[in-house]
Specification:
By secondary structure, the protein is of the alpha/beta class. The chain is 39% helix and 22% strand. Bound molecules: zinc ion (2 copies). The site of one zinc ion has 4 residues, from loops. GO terms for molecular function: IAA-Ala conjugate hydrolase activity; metal ion binding.
Amino acid sequence: MKKMISLLCFIVVVIITTAPPPSSSSSSNGDLQNSSRVKLVDDYILRVANDVGFGDWMKNIRREIHEYPEVGFEETRTSSVIRRELEKMSIAYRWPVASTGVVATIGSALPPFVALRADMDALPIQELVEWEHKSKIDGKMHACGHDAHVAMLLGAAKILKQLENQLQGTVVLIFQPAEERGEGAKEMIKEGVVENVEAIFGLHLVVSSDSGVVVTRPGEFLAGCGCFKALIHAKTASSNPILAVSASIISLQHIVSREADPLDTPVVSVAMVDGGSHDDTLNVIPESVSIAGTFRAFSKKTFYALGQRIQEVIKAQAGVYGCWCVVDLEGNEYPSVPPTVNDKRIYEHVIQVSNAIVGKDNTQTTQPFMGSEDFAFYLEKIPGALAFLGMRNAKAGLVHSPHSPYYSVDEQVLPTGSALHATFAYTYLFNHFNQSLLTI
Ligand SMILES: [Zn+2]
Ligand SMILES: [Zn+2]
């Protein structure tokens, strides 16, 4: 009998810990307060995410992708792992989107639509971390955590699938190629992935914050990163494009020091000059010289004005020295990424969800970062917010910055990432539904 009771207890515990909370319409009293209902779902999502088996499953996916890194628009193997896992979960998806992208949907298949995004690409870097799951591809490595981003979004898919009959709308899961090239998001948008989508959320792992800390900001969060490349060519035999280039470089520095608002903190850097003889011939003036560089700014206004001004300055200086020039600001080789500007309402949502999932002490509003992210392109189309999830673990030596050959991820944060993603979407749809009831 004693045994029977303990067996019964076990069954009850299993049911309690694995079954999703009842939907509001089917709840026993039918009048669960919204806040307590959200709390119930938050708790359920945390319970699922904290399950050891769930964490191990995510770790294995991340490691499988880590072993076979693929750079922008070559993520065929990575997207096949994503599709395999989605099929196992009976989640519908569209593929290929923008070459290698995958777009899955969970929910009612009706509006409103809310999107969650993960990037999938690796970098052309030789991994120098010696571990069991080191990259098996020479010269390529997941050194920005996008392997972990994919695992976190698949984790969110698993959680949301279990809550599918309670979703008051549809969650769109965007697995995007080529973030590092600054082109993936643009291509996905061209394929219509955010058409009819009301809000979008993105997460990026960072080592600048401790593991499990969420960091974000309303408004201007990350800088826009633009590139310019100019070819300056002599108009006559007496013109010297080296002089035109020299004057351009000096004048470009004045844009920041004399023209820009010092509180706006833009940056203009000339990083390449190419011209003249490469074999010690010192008495031949080259017909043409190229210069190239980058510029960064936090506000969209300053960013676009900066690009315009760089063009004007180089063209004017070329004219002064009897040269013509072509300035390229949108080359395929050097794509520009606009500033990442978080929508204030969606930012508030991120803060509320983070408070519930990682706690108030681990939710921070930060200063802007100089880095850039092609998530910015989605934010140019629809409201949304990008947040960072810290994964610095000094004890385990996980402190190396992204794009370092020693970069490594604290896999303990993967379930937290999934829980955040899932709750961003679930709660957004839940709040939307309740607000629409209020306005009827
Ligand atoms: Zn990166
Ligand atoms: Zn990245």
